[in-house]
Amino acid sequence: MKWTVLIIAFFMLLSASAVGQLDQYSTSTAGGAPTPSNPTTPESLGLQTPSVTTSQVAPALQERSQGLIKADQQSAYAAAPQGLTATATSPTFTQMIVPTGTYAPNSLYISYAPQTIAGCNLYANLPLWMKTAGSGNIWFYEWYPNGMLDTQYAGYVYYPGWYKRWFFADVPGWHILQYHCNGWSNYAYVYVYGPRGYWVNPTPNPSPQPYTYPYPYGQGQIVTTYPSTGHTYHSFKSSTSIGS
Question: Helix H segments across the chain?
Fold first, then answer.
């Protein structure tokens, strides 16, 4: 009887450990990027799967090669669907979820301000609106559904203000976004609709390489192992400087 109890307790411990691991996201960075906190899972926050946003647009040709674009508050709020304003938007999708015990002076919105939780289809493009509280290097973080962290250097800004970046929905499931510019931003959560359980190449021909868009070419190569399949691709850090 004693051995039976011990065996049951052992397996319960293993099960609890496995569940804990599922809630963990990678925080490993390279290239001098600040180390982020482990973000809170959408499940722990009780987030409902959002419907597909109605503001999906493709980036303009001149914006596709830019890691960071100067913007303004009017543009960020004007991107909202007609009839929605900062006060009328559902509070469910405008939660400011920040790292626990960390200074977070910057703001990050997905699709339009002040939205922080959004849904989109696989391979959609959504604008990200960033309100920085000061100058500095901007490091952008994206956690994939399997917990992998992709870190990109977005550029340097000389003045506080509004900036824009693009999100590309390349893997189904929840994505968690954040950036750092002399302090952290809040998290933005995006649910990508599509087939689950395997990586899908949006451009299977003629190139067999996984899709690298929208990261720009520039100085400093970053090698990333792609989720689900272990594919490796090479993206490049942006050398964008704004406000100099």
Answer: 2-22, 42-45, 73-78
11 in any annotated domain: no
DSSP-assigned letters across all residues of 202-240: S--SS--SPP-TTPPP-SSEEEEEPTTT--EEEEE----
- Domain membership of residue 167 (yes or no) is yes
Count of structural domains, the chain? 1
pLDDT for 2 equals 52
At 17, is the secondary structure helix, strand, or coil?
helix
116 within domain boundaries: yes
- CA 95 from chain center: how many Å? 15
The range of the structural domain enclosing residue 120 comes to 33-242
The whole-model pTM stands at 0.72
Q: Which residues contact 12 (CB under 8 A, 6 or more apart)?
A: none
Residue 28 lies in a domain: no
